[in-house]
Amino acid sequence: MANISKANKGGAAESPLQGSVALVTGGSRGIGKAIVRKLAALGAAVSFCGRDEEKLRNAAEEVQAGGGKVLALRADVTKEKDIFALVQSTEKQLGPIAILVNNAGIGASGFGAIQDKSEADWDQVMNTNLKSVFFVSRAVIPGMIQRRGGDIVNISSLAGKNTFAGGGIYCASKWGLQGLSGCMAEDLRGHGIRVSVICPGSVATDFMGRGPKDGAKVLTAGDVAHAVAMVVTQGPQSFISEVHLRPVAKP
Question: Catalytic annotation on 170?
């Protein structure tokens, strides 16, 4: 896990992640970009990936303008060879990864009545929302085990705890992520590695695939980033396994 006990002493209290390296998948927009910004503001050197080079470049420039240290890398998280290169480049340029945030996800292909969906829809959602977490985590975990610590934060959804009409494939991917996260936590806690899952409700981003929502009744990307910060800056003796985020006002 991130070395926060020393960083919280004295003048470094405002940079508790100073000296730590974080990797955020799907970090070029929305929730991912907010998480990159937050971790960088807390002192971490942050590597993040996406598939759109222009969005990656713009996000990197935005964070760097605020004084953050970031590395933007193009990668498709559904491809194992891309993940290997992503992790190798991150650790070569920034150092060992202490924090992994598996944020990459899609929704649009996962919404709709199950009888109207195709095998391609299923594969696209499952590969992005679930298989990618397996790929990236598996690439990062050996180093964390060797160093006897680390934080892995998986961004899930309240759709991983509930069901609704038209959400079959998306819910299946997030319910699967809940199960994977729980098992990872048990596999890795003996190595000093914490695995946490964050389950937001509707968030005001361009991801909102089930139609427009009242902006006053949804979360912001910053709310999710705040939850990630809470998880990775907790004391070394504690373990927040799951966080549920809901707007105060009911939709």
Answer: yes
> What residues form DSSP beta bridges with 49?
73
CATH number at residue 134: 3.40.50.720
> 97 lies in a domain?
yes
- Polymer length of the chain: 251
Q: What is the pLDDT of residues 114-173, one digit of tens each?
A: 999 999 999 999 999 999 999 999 999 999 999 999 999 999 999 999 999 999 999 999
Q: CA dist 101 to 11, 55, 155, Å? A: 27, 19, 7
CB 202 within 8 A of CB 219: yes
In a domain, residue 53? The reply is yes
- CB-CB neighbours of 49 under 10 Å: 28
CB burial of residue 157 (10 Å; 0-12, 13-18, 19+): buried
The residues near 133 (Cβ < 8 Å, ≥ 6 apart) are 102, 154, 177, 180, 181
Strands 150-155 and 45-50, how do they pair? unpaired
The model's pTM is 0.91
Rounded CA gap, 206 and 44, in Å? 27
| Residue of 48, 111, 135, 170 marked catalytic | 170
Whole domain around residue 90: which residue ranges? Answer: 18-245
6 occurs within a structural domain:
no
